[in-house]
Amino acid sequence: AQTVTQSQPEMSVQEAETVTLSCTYDTSESDYYLFWYKQPPSRQMILVIRQEAYKQQNATENRFSVNFQKAAKSFSLKISDSQLGDAAMYFCAPSPETGNQFYFGTGTSLTVIP
Amino acid sequence: DTGVSQDPRHKITKRGQNVTFRCDPISEHNRLYWYRQTLGQGPEFLTYFQNEAQLEKSRLLSDRFSAERPKGSFSTLEIQRTEQGDSAMYLCASSLAGTPGNEQFFGPGTRLTVL
Predict the structure, then answer these.
(1) Do A112 and A11 touch, CB atoms closer than 8 A?
(2) Bond prior to B8 in cis (omega within 30° of 0)
(3) In chain A, which residues have their Cβ closer than 8 Å to the Cβ of B40?
(4) Chain B residue closest to A53 (CA)?
(5) Is there a contact between A105 and B56 if contact means CB atoms under 8 Å apart?
(6) What is the pLDDT of residue A98?
């Protein structure tokens, strides 16, 4: 089994500023992927960014980037130039390469202040 | 394709009643998943299908819960003799086997309230 810890239940950021959401996980798998999902209020969960654990280079997707520290089993999400539409719950989810389910953290609720 | 859809979006029922939810995955996706999400928590895995075969079930899925995917397309999740503790958001997701990391696409969920 895997465990996922998101130690920041709530975060806030000023519009246009940068915020970092943290995630640590525990897995015995050698090959896996890591995902950040966003769940806006009353809307469906959508993928923000994906990282392959075998890649040393951190993934980037527009204003979203990750800081992946494999040895520390840490996978943080950085949101640059925060926008009002970034307000949502953010979930970290590792997935074994051969696995068939996601293990989600408890989430971080992000508020963007205009 | 418009993505994963779920029906109904909201369901209010009385304790002891049976309820059934439906999920329609993305058409070319052969994998389908059910998760349960309670307020302030992340989704918890319930069960997963590849085509019509139910390949994995969580211990969270008590004998009051049953899921089917009869033709390998849509799926139903039935809860019998509902209890107040069943109140939650039930999420469906789908994926295509062999895609990197088994990326899953989620539906909007069905919110169940048991009175």
Answers:
(1) no
(2) yes
(3) 9, 106-107
(4) B101
(5) no
(6) 66
∠ at Cα A20 (A18, A21), nearest 5°?
A: 145
What is the SS3 assignment for B37-106? ECCCCCCEEEEEEECCEEEEECCCCCCCEEEECCCCCCEEEEECCCCHHHCEEEEEEEECCCCHHHCCEE
Contact A59, A49 (CB under 8 A): yes
Measured distance CA(A25)–CA(A5) in Å, rounded: 6
Q: What is the pLDDT of residue A1?
A: 58
- Alpha carbon distance B34, B51 (integer Å): 14
**Residue B40 Cα to chain centre, angstroms:** 19
Contacts of B14 (CB under 8 A, 6+ apart): B82, B114, B115
Query: Identity (one letter) of the amino acid at A83?
Result: Q
Distance of CA B59 to the CA centre of its chain: 15
What is the spatial distance between Cα B94 and Cα B106, in angstroms, rounded to a whole number? 7
Return the structure tokens found at B113: 């309230």
Which token pair is B56? 């994995």
pLDDT in tens, chain B (115 residues): 579 999 999 999 999 999 999 999 999 999 999 999 998 889 999 999 999 999 989 888 889 999 999 988 999 999 999 999 999 999 999 999 888 778 899 999 999 999 9
Of B4, B45, B100, the CB nearest to A52: B100
Q: Is the pLDDT of residue A34 over 80?
A: yes
